[in-house]
Amino acid sequence: MELKKILETQSEASWKKYIPTLSIDCVIFGFYETSLQVLTVKMKDQEAWALPGGYVQKDENVDDAAIRILKDRTGTENVYLQQFYTFGNLKRSESAFEAYDDSIWNKQRFVSIGYYALADFSKVNLIIDKYSTACEWHSIDNLPSFMMDHRTIFDKALLTLREQLNHHPIGYNLLPEKFTMPELQKLYEIILGKKLNRGNFYRKILRYDILTKLDESRKGGAHKAPDLYSFDLEKYNNALKEGLKGSW
Fold first, then answer.
1. Do 119 and 76 meet the contact criterion of CB atoms below 8 Å apart?
2. Which residues form the Nudix hydrolase domain (predicted)?
């Protein structure tokens, strides 16, 4: 069934189920093969891509709505989720529904709460629902055209992630359970969009005291096998709450 017909059919139920004029858009980041990726969806009958999103039920907390939307698209709730901005420009979304009757739920003016999420790439199950034809990861260096103001939402999410990297740890939801220091440094470099001095990075990240050095090393390389690390979750979560000092 085409998207227009689907939305027209369920419009009346949406008016009863959801809070009017309030929506959620999620920027879901994942890390794969030294590349920071973002999850995108292609809606039926649309050429441009979109960020995963949805609406807030009348009997639902806003954060719970974001978690539900994430689970619907990724099949998992084990992600780091952070509200980062509110998007409410005039006609930010109505243009996508110009061919619809003015009474249709989706054509109303919506103020959207933006969330960014950090997900384990290997544990995400891409889910194509009845509104979409594709659900795919895209590298942040090779993004498709976005519908509505979703490129603006993505840009703000990435900027916020970079800013918060100066004050909070990152990596637990993006890296495997065991990782090397070069892999952690590469993640930071990709998010920040710049090279970091190896010695300075090692000293600083170790000073944060959020890592546990394992009695293991990464095998298989031509050079000396690098040591493996894992995050000390208690200290990591405390750093998320209390913050870190310094900047990259």
1. yes
2. 19-162
Where residue 246 falls (left for φ over 0; alpha for ψ -120 to 50; beta otherwise) is: left
Q: What does the radius of gyration of the chain's CA atoms come to, in whole angstroms?
A: 20
Tally of residues, the chain:
248
Nearest partner of 124 among 43, 198, 37, judged by Cα: 37
Q: How far is CA 240 from CA 26, 166, 184, 210, in A?
A: 20, 11, 17, 11
Q: Residues of 96-126 as b/e, b for ≥16 C-beta within 10 angstroms?
A: bbeebeeebbbbbebebbbbbbbbbbeebee
Instruction: State the CB neighbour count (10 A cutoff) for residue 175.
Output: 20
Give the number of other Cβ atoms within 10 Å of residue 22's Cβ: 15
Q: How far is CA 136 from CA 24, 43, 76, 139, 245, in A?
A: 19, 12, 16, 10, 36
| The pair of three-digit structure tokens given for residue 34, joined into one six-digit string | 């030294």
Structure tokens at 52: 């995963």
Tens digit of pLDDT for each residue in 49-107? 999 999 999 999 999 999 999 998 888 877 899 999 999 999 888 778 888 999 999 99
First to last CA, the chain: 50
For residue 103, give both structure tokens: 């009474």
> What is the model's pTM?
0.90
d(CA 20, CA 53): 15
